[in-house]
Amino acid sequence: MRAIIRTSIVALAVTCCASACAQEQRAGCVIKGNISSSGERIYHVPGQRYYDKTLINGLQGERWFCTEQEAIAAGWRKAKV
Fold first, then answer.
1. Cα gap 26→70, rounded to integer Å
2. Does the pTM exceed 0.85?
3. Is 78 helix (H, G, I), strand (E, B) or coil?
4. Per-residue pLDDT tens digits for 24-47
């Protein structure tokens, strides 16, 4: 019985962590603000090479933007590819 309860608690914790790690996308905001491994703040727009592979982790300071102007004003640069 303890094993079942412990397994359930671990499964619940993993699920909660996974949902909390990704910042919630605001309606209509499709620009992804990603922080590179070197700390550079880069934004990706739909259609760019790595847009679909880029994941947003709010716990690392990554975020969604509604416009490119918003991303630039926040100090992010556009992805080169």
1. 13
2. no
3. strand
4. 888 889 999 999 999 999 999 999
